Amino acid sequence: MTTTIVKIVFENDIRRIALQTENAYEHLTQEVSRIYSGRFPNGVQVRYVDDEDDCVTVTSNPELKDAFEMSEATLKLFITPKSAEEEETEYVKVSKDGQRTAILTKQDSKDSAVIVREVEVSPQEENAKSNLDDLEAAKAEEEAKAKQAAKAEEAKKAKAKEAVKAEKEAKTKEKAKKKAEAAKEKAKAKAQKAKKEVERLLKVSEKAAAKAKKEAMKAHKQAEKAAKDAEKAARKAKKQFRAGLSSAFVKDVTYEDGVEVEVGTKITKTWLLKNDGVSPWTSEVYLGKQTKGKLNPVSDSKVPELLPGKEGEVSVTLSLPSKEGKFRTPNFFLCHDGKKFGDRFWATVTAIKPKSADKDLAKVPVEDKPKKSYSQVTKDSVSKADAKQKADVKEPLGAHFVRDVNFPDNCLVAPGQAIKKTWVIKNTGPRAWPRGTKLVSLDGSTFGQHSTVEIMTKVGKGEQYNLSIDLVAPLETGKHTARFQLMSPQGEQFGHKYWINIQVSKFPSNKELKSMAMEFLADKEVVSVLQEELPVVIKEIRQGKKLASIVELVISKRPELKKHQFVIFIRPFLQSAERFMGFQLDALVSMYSFWAMTPFANGAIASNSEEKSPKEEKHAAKETPKEETPKKSPPKEDVKEAPSDFKYEKELKHFAELGFKNLEAVKPLLMKHKGSVPSVFEELFPN
Question: Which helix (H) or strand (E) holds 510?
Answer without folding.
Answer: helix 510-521
